[in-house]
Sequence to fold (514 residues):
Amino acid sequence: MADTKREIERKYEGPATENGTESLPDLSGVPGVAAVVDKGVAELDATYYDTPDQRLAAASLTLRRRTGGADAGWHLKLPVSEGVRDEIRAPLSDTVPRALSGLVRSRVRDTELVPLVRLLSARDVRHLVDGSGALLAEVSLDRVRAERLDGGGGTAAWTEIEVELADDGDPAFLDKVEKKLRKAGLHRSAAPSKLAKALAETGKQSGKRAQEGGRAAEPAPAADPVTAGDHVLAHLRAQRDAIVELDPAVRRDVHDSVHSMRVATRRMRGTFGSYAKVLDPAVTGPIGEELKWLAGELGVDRDREVLTERLTQALAELPRTLVGGPVRARLRTWAHARHGGSRRRLLAVLDGKRYLALLAALDALVTDPPLLGAAAGDPEKVIAKAVRRDFAKVSGLVGQALDGQPGTDRDLAMHEARKKAKRARYSAEAAVPALDAPAARLAKAMKSLQGLLGDHQDSVMTREALRELAALAHAAGESSFTYGVLYGREEQRAAAVEAALPEAWRATLEQASV
Fold:
């Protein structure tokens, strides 16, 4: 069992915390503070774990086992933004809890987690409280001793002040505390965490990337892409990084994380197809198939989320006189059953060998890319040609949809046009660094067209779901009237999209000039 705490904190160092003057400044005068409560000194003993090549530290992740204090146990800290981290906690155990090891698997892969640094801290704690006694922030003076555990035996000692905002507190309060600390001669710590400082003080990271776990060293990307290949690789590297970084959020079921990871897989697959003259399809093809598989597994959850949201909203808009039977309860049951099953399946996928093999293949791709002759070409020519080719495919499919008769054939044509519009959008977005405004305009136009066509496809899928729900209701002896009403409304929505498509396409053509 693991729980999550959002941690908003700042660390300080300076003359007031150096040897000889190790004490907390008086914070009773901070606006809003009615009292400063002495909570005593806690002795903390924390061992930090990482791979031998420090992959977690490189990604600003920290995994520790700590005893002492009120929150003894295992802690995994995931960066959210500057000064903000999500701390995932699990009870004390001798080995890394599975609830936490899974959250770092996209970084660690099959490599063993080993003790890296031990920190012994004497934490002198004060609570800043308001007039009602409610906690505003916890301020501590930490006297830290660090010992390197992965060879070399380096040690270090320092003192720092940490200010952590109370749960649901106003981040602006930290600015008030900081103003007081600065007057006392303190300044923000250059190190983002104790572990980062310990690594710097006990022996700098060698920078050597171990070959363990199938992850090879990557060459540093050029600061400014020059060739067409540089631009394409920069885009691919960003998508690979997004997949790896989103993995813990997907496992935690963070809102929109599944969708975001799915988009990253699609962007990468789209890049393979759009820039087949830059990257060898013989190499990218099999990887693209694996990305398609992963997107499909991610889509099981996402598609159900979209359908449930759409049906819930549609039901809320119906007059009560048109709602017959336990429609809302059946919808909740249907959504929960599908979601629960798909979640279990998705977690099994992320823990599987096939997924880890895909991550290794992506690492190898950006480390040793299969570049073709066009990769060395002028990006304005090579990339613009690829974007125009993608747009031509969209144009042909939209033409088929406009010429077709209402019904299944038009539905299929619009669905295919939507997929190609999405690919053209991703292609244009990848081209923005090279082509600037023209690519940005096309990406915006494709996004708008994709949205219109996507609404049509959502209507098609919603009608399929309504047929399924109606059948379940009928089998249970419930009225299926409301499902029929919703079905009719979805037909009207689809017809409205079809009627709007000609004008939307004309507007798209006006913006498509790459």
DSSP finds 14 helices and nine strands in the chain.
